[in-house]
Amino acid sequence: MQSRTARALIAVAALVAVVVLFVVLAGGDDDGGGETTTQAQPATGTTAPATGTEPEPEPAEEAVPRIVVEGGEPRGGVERLSFDSGERVRFVVRSDVADEVHVHGYDVSRDVPAGGSVRFGFPASIEGVFEVELEGRGVQIAELRVSP
Amino acid sequence: MVKRLVPAAVVVAAGALAAPEPAAAHGLVGRADLPIPEWLFGWAAAVVLIVSFAGLALLWQEPRLEGRKSFRPLPDGLSFTLVNTATEVFAGVVGVGLLALTIYAGLAGVQSPQANFAPTFIYVIFWVGLVPLSVLFGDVFRAFNPWRAIARGAGWLTARVRGPLPAPFRYPERLGRWPAAIGLLGFAWMELAYANGDDPSTLAVAALVYTAITLLAIACFGTEKWMSRGEAFSVYFNLFSRISAVEVRDGRVGLRPPLEALTRLTPVAGTIPLLVVMIGTVAFDGASEGKPWTDVAPDIQDFFTSLGFSLGTALELTFTVGMLIGLAIVASIYLLGIAGVRTVDRRPFGEIARSYVHTLVPIAAVYVLAHYFSLLVYNGQAMAYLASDPLGEGSDLFGTADATIDYGVLGATAIWYVQVGVLVAGHVCGLILAHDRALAMYQKARAATTSQYWMLAVMVAFTTGGLFLLSQANQ
């Protein structure tokens, strides 16, 4: 079973696999760099409150992400709202139509009047990717993303 | 899973067109998995490679699973408590009852995927939940199979009235497992591509049609024949149950070495397509949550709308194409590997391909488990309120109608570890099966080893591919 060619083949295969792996990982780094970037610190795990590259919530008003709904659709497409587990999820929905804004998973709902806005704030206690939806229209307006 | 995670632009476009009935555009799932982080992907892939190469060097030199006829029956009393006429009848009645409830709820209940019993029961409990059960406890579905139960009941009745009734037709053996492969493909299409696939009444009608076809085929070819070749779900869950150490043989419960029953799988025609469907559809479902797919999907959809299809139809066609691409990729990976094996094995291509097909069953199982684990853990909880209120009309049969899904039971990290863990476990099982088969088939150790490289490459491709899909999902 362990002839010399066999070993050579194994070595070559391993090398190829490692190179492929490296390329994939490196490639992944590039496009992941966009917005969230909870960078791959090996396993700092869930303990620390956010190695937060984006010190977002503290200065309240300005930093709160705002979703604008026009004609029942989110302006600029479905936006991603990223938080770390344990932070406080905050965002504002401003809408020109009256509807109920529903955050799935957390099951938080608030009504928004036509031409008005509604403010959300709750602890990011559940990890995962969740829909934020105009419940009446069944239209997704944002994606809530809570990472460990 | 499913249509919820269609690229945003596509959803908006289709939603705008389908505007008259917005409530239906909902889907079953309110939460999706985070992609596995890069460091975990890297570690897992490294572990896969190390395990593989260590395995090549360290695994046994004589076949351990092939031709091993060890079946150790459980003690009589225990075996009889588990399997006797009463428990068989009971399981059959439960199976038929659940089928009837699903169809009734789908037709008579509220037409909302989450509030109606049918979608969650079919897609989560039945389709996904039975997979780990089969892997752990053997062919559980066989006991609860409603169609088998109906057929056996009817057979028992007619036998009492007019004596035994032989099947009027011989099953055409050249069909092999093709009917099952086609049945599974149809089911997967409904789940992944069909716009109304979550729709309770659609599911109920599909279940009715499938019931009719199945009973008809049973009447033609006999119960056991159709269960082992044509009935898609029997064949599907039976394949997974072959991983398990539990078996019921001649009415007795006993233990066998895990995986051993896979070496006894007869690779009749259609078995390879069946496995390709099983792996390819799940792979596509995973890929459809990731960027490579969401980048091309709108283009494919545009192509179909330019042909004159409506946006909704174009979207279905797009997903159908995606699914077929998934099947093609899975088939090519396997067949390329087999082409490699042919360098040391001069038998015809098809024969070699069939002799390794059982090694794909663990891969198929872990694809399902890794991809749908969180669906089972979270949406499975919906059974608490659905059992009390199957129609979604406000009844409270067991006092649990107010239960909700607790998304806090498992964190994202735990889910990642389970996903990666099962993928690696499936990889090891596939490797063991391929190794054992090679030892049994080739007298020359050298041929066995060389054939191993190719099967190893196939396994590594599927496993790292699975990891890659997990790392891309919802990226």
List keywords for this structure.
heterodimer; A: 148 residues; alpha+beta; Immunoglobulin-like; 2 domains; 5-stranded mixed β-sheet; 4-stranded mixed β-sheet; 36% strand; elongated; B: 475 residues; mainly alpha; 3-stranded antiparallel β-sheet; 4 strands; 67% helix; globular; disordered N terminus
Quick overview of this protein structure:
The complex is a heterodimer of chains A (148) and B (475). Chain A is an alpha+beta fold and 148 residues long. Chain A has one helix at residues 4-32; strands at residues 66-70, 73-74, 79-84, 88-95, 99-103, 108-112, 117-123, 128-134, 139-147.
Task: Provide the fold topology.
The complex is a heterodimer of chains A (148) and B (475).
Chain A: H1 4-32, E1 66-70, E2 73-74, E3 79-84, E4 88-95, E5 99-103, E6 108-112, E7 117-123, E8 128-134, E9 139-147
Parallel strand pairs in A: 1-4, 3-9
Antiparallel strand pairs in A: 1-2, 4-7, 5-6, 5-8, 8-9
Chain B: H1 8-17, E1 31-32, H2 38-58, E2 72-73, H3 76-82, H4 85-108, H5 117-137, H6 140-144, H7 146-162, H8 178-192, H9 200-221, H10 223-229, H11 232-241, E3 246-249, E4 252-255, H12 260-263, H13 271-287, H14 291-306, H15 311-341, H16 349-355, H17 360-379, H18 383-388, H19 412-441, H20 445-472
Antiparallel strand pairs in B: 2-4, 3-4
Helix pairs in contact in B: 2-19, 2-20, 4-5, 4-7, 4-9, 5-9, 5-11, 5-17, 8-11, 8-13, 9-10, 13-15, 13-17, 14-15, 15-20, 17-19, 17-20, 19-20
Describe the fold and architecture.
- The complex is a heterodimer of chains A (148) and B (475).
- The longest helix of chain A has 29 residues, at 4-32.
- Chain A is built from 1 helix and 9 strands, in the order αβββββββββ.
- Chain A has a 5-stranded mixed β-sheet, with no helix packed on it. In chain A, strands 2-1-4-7 form a 4-stranded mixed β-sheet, with no helix packed on it.
- With 148 residues, chain A is α+β, with helices and mostly antiparallel strands.
- Chain A folds into 2 domains: 1-32; 60-147, Immunoglobulin-like (Sandwich).
- With 475 residues, chain B is mainly α.
- Chain B is built from 20 helices and 4 strands.
- A 3-stranded antiparallel β-sheet of chain B has the order 2-4-3.
- In chain B, a hairpin with a 2-residue loop joins β3 (246-249) and β4 (252-255).
- Chain B is globular.
- Chain B starts with 7 loop residues before the first helix and ends with a helix.
- Chains A and B meet through α1, β8 and β9 of A and α1, β1, α2 and α20 of B.
- β8 (128-134) of chain A pairs antiparallel with β1 of chain B, so a sheet runs across the interface.
